[in-house]
Amino acid sequence: MAAVNAGEVQTPFEPKYDRASEVKDFDDTKTGVKGLVDAGISEVPRIFHQPPDTVGETSVLSAIQFSIPVIDLQGVKEDPSTHKEIVKQVLNASHEWGFFQIINHGIPVSVLEEMKVRAHRFYELDDELKKQFYTRDTSKKVVYNSNFDLFISPAANWRDTVYCDMAPDPPKPEELPEPFRGMIVEYTDRMMSLGHLLFELISESLGLNPDHLVKIDCAKGLGHHFHYYPACPQPELTIGAGKHADSCFLTVLLQDHIGGLQVLYENQWINVPPIPGALVVNIGDLLQLISNDRLVSVKHRVLANSVGPRISVASFFSTYFNPNPRLYGPIKELLSSDNPPKYRETTVLEFKNHYYNKGLDGSSALLHFRI
C-alpha cells in the first residue's frame, strides 16, 4: 500500500477530480454558466472554485477613505478653461488610479439603457439559437463562450461573454445575433466618437498633440464584450472575473445597477459604484507601455453575486483581430536621459497572443515586455 504523506487526508471513497474532463464537459454543453443556473444547481461546480486567498484577498476600504475619480465632461469642447481642467483631471486619474468614471459624455442614457436590454435579450434567447455563435475561434467576428481562458486557467470565472468585433471591419448585419442588429451599430458610432475624445484628452495630458494617439491607431479597432454574470448560489466560492488588467489601449465600460466591479488600489480592493448614466474608463496595458508607465493599467476584478444577472458592456479599443504591423514602444517624445524606455517594441498581435496564452492568472502581461 502506498504511503500517505504527512498532512494528507485519505478519502478512498471520494470520486477522483478530473479537472480537464469536467472543463471539457462544461464547454461541450455550449450553454455556459447560465446553463448551470437554468438547470437549477444549488452548488458551484469545483471548476469554478477560487483559491481562498483569491476570494478574500484584501478587505475593501470604505468610499470615505478612497473613491474612484468622477470626471464631468460638460463643456469640454466649448470652454477652453474647462477643457484645460478636464485634461488635468484625466492625467491625475490615469496616473494615480488608471480608472475613472465619466458623466456628461455625450451618449444618451436611453442608448446606454437599450444596449443593456439588448445584451440581456441575447442571453435570454433559446439555447439552440445561442449555440450557433458558441465558439473558441477568435478569428470570428462574433464569439460567444464562457471564459476565454477556460482550458488554461486554474479556476473558471462565473460569467459568460459574447464578443462583437465592430471596427475597423464590422460584421455584416446578418452575422450579428438578432438582439444586437441595428442598435450595436449606433452604439459603436457613439463609442468611437467618445473614444476619439478620450484619446485626445489623454494625448494632451501627456503633453502631446491632441491627435497623437489617434494617429498611431489607438482608436482604430473597437470590439464590445457583453458580459453576463448569473446569480450565484455560493458567491463566496467563486468570482465573476478574476484579478486582471486589460490588454488593450483603453476600455470604456457600461455597467448596470448591481455593481461588483473593484479596483486594486494601494493593495486594497475599492468598489467602483454604479452611477446612473456614467461610464467607467480604464487604461489598458498597451497605453501603459507606450506612455512608459506615465499612465497605469490597474488590476481589477468583479465579484460573483447572489442577486443577478449582472450585465456589463466593455468596449475595448485595440486592433486585436485586425492585426496591425505597426510597432508600439514608449513614445519617443516622452523619453529623456532621465526617463529611458522601460519596454521593448511589440505589435498588438504579439501582445494579445502573450496575454491570451497567459490567461487571467493575476500577473501582469507587461512584465514579459520589460527591458
TrEMBL record:
One Pfam family from the record = DIOX_N
Q: Which InterPro entries match?
A: DIOX_N, IPNS-like_FE2OG_OXY, IPNS-like_sf, Oxoglu/Fe-dep_dioxygenase_dom
Signal in keyword set: no
Instruction: Provide the Fe2OG dioxygenase domain boundaries.
Output: 215-320
Supply the alphabetized keyword list. Iron, Metal-binding, Oxidoreductase
Tagged with keyword Metal-binding: yes
Q: Which family does it belong to?
A: Belongs to the iron/ascorbate-dependent oxidoreductase family.
- Protein name stated in the entry: Fe2OG dioxygenase domain-containing protein
Q: Which organism is it from?
A: Gossypium arboreum
